[in-house]
Amino acid sequence: MRAEIYFGSKKVIREDRREIISPYSGEVVSSFPICSAEDSREALRIAEESRKEIGKVSLSKRCDWLLDVAKSLEESRDEVAKTITDEVGKPISFAKVEVDRCVETIRLSAETMRTMSGETINTDAVSSGRKAISYFNRVPAGVVVAITPFNFPLNLVAHKIAPALVSGNAVVLKPTPEAPLSAYKLVELFQNSPFATPNAISIVYGDAEVGSALVSSDIPRVISFTGSVPVGNIIAKSAGIKKVALELGGNAGTYIDSSADLEHSAKRCVYGAFTNSGQVCISLQRIYVNSEIYDEFAKLLAVETENLIVGNPYEENTFMGPLINEESVERAKNWLQSAVDEGATPLTEIRSDGRVLYPAVMGDVTDDMAIVCEEVFAPIVSLVKVENIDEAISKMNDSPYGLQFSIFSNNLRNVQKAIDELEAGGVVINDIPTLRFDIQPYGGIKLSGVGREGPRFAIEEFTEIKSVTIV
Q1: Per the confidence metrics, is the pTM higher than 0.85?
Q2: Residue 443 lies in a domain
Q3: How would DSSP label each residue in 54-89?
Q4: DSSP 3-51
Q5: Mean pLDDT over residues 338-360, rounded?
Q6: Residues recognised as catalytic
Q7: Is 294 found in the same domain as 260?
């Protein structure tokens, strides 16, 4: 129930704490120590002192470390999944999936690092060159600061710390204040492993003061942040000369072509819009539907939505639980009301029960409504009627975000057009833009961020290229 500080390998017990209340039950489910900017500086000091020795640890031992942690996490799956449900209200079946994905992410990081290598260069391939032995390899960046969000409080931690540690860095983690224990349990597995590298990972907690001290320091060489655009903008401006990887917001859209399998499309769109209560950067928010099949698709989508099981996140068959806090519920309800006032038509009943906002499908939505212009981060999806794929692509691209888009179509030309013209970090064909495989590169363009996650691509972010020439 208690998360604690780790300054490197040293656990620090502190009684000045903040309690975490379950979004569903309202009960106290965990607590974490209140930290200060000085705590951030202490964690960074230890990381800086230790980074050279950490970088000398053999790759085989670093890989063994990760694989041991993955095994321990797999064995504690049910306990850790319940912690996720306790802290953020994620339905228990989805929390177990997150643990499974976290195990996979850690193992992938070890397997990827074993096979990553440099490259030899033909220095005499240009007229200005001459014969020499030339190659490059990858070396640890040094100190990595990782800042993670509440919506995937375990796997998004793993996506940062596992690649950073296996590539030989020292890491300072600041997890979301909403789910400190979920992150702490993972860090403790790293600390308690018999293969652990001393002082390789620290964990501190807090909001702006703690985060600002981490980001603005000259010690870290990489800042890896997942969160909101406003905070990402602050980080980018205050980080200084260092690598900054930002996975920020999204406004994911899809196009339902007249050639699509409508039943399949509706089932998948419901999943993409409402999984994790819509609290996913790539939650499906905008559905552009060809006018020829708009009415049929809208009915199918509404029926599928009404059939979802919503409520108690501790029941195995629950699809959707609560939002993270009351503020999120009120913001979403205000957006729904604003859309209705502007002429949108609710295709499902708009209702809430405490922090549980039932999934809402909105029809007759137009481009100027805030409900499609901004990231809602709630269980709301909007239907917009379009005449063809060109209109759909134009509307999807007309957004400051560019994380992931998709298209449902059996028309090869339309599929190729979407691949070529959609402006996003990822394009999915015949499935939802919410689809993400942890082995893939993941990240966006525009305000959706810079840099990429996925073990191989994160390792590239967390390492530097060193060029060697022997003449």
Answers
A1: yes
A2: no
A3: HHHS-HHHHHHHHHHHHHHHHHTHHHHHHHHHHHH-
A4: --EEETTEEE--S-EEEEE-TTT--EEEEEE---HHHHHHHHHHHHHHH
A5: 96
A6: 247, 281
A7: yes
